[in-house]
C-alpha cells in the first residue's frame, strides 16, 4: 500500500495506544528482531541518540513493518494489512 496524499498525516495519533503497544511488542521480541541479516550491510557515518546503530534501526523497522500483518493474534493477514494511519506512523 502506498501513502495517500491529502489524508491528515497525524491522525495515527488517535491510535497512539495501539502503536505504543506494537512498539513494546517489537521490543519484547528482540531475539526475533536480530534474525534479519539483510540489515548487516547498512552503513552510515551518522551518529544516533544513545549510540544506536543503523543496523539496529533497520532490524527494528523491518520487524515492526512485518508485525502489522501478524500482531496481535500471530496470524498473517492475506489482504492488505496496512491502513493509511499505519503508513504515516512508519514514516
UniProtKB/TrEMBL annotation:
<protein>
    <submittedName>
        <fullName>PIR Superfamily Protein</fullName>
    </submittedName>
</protein>
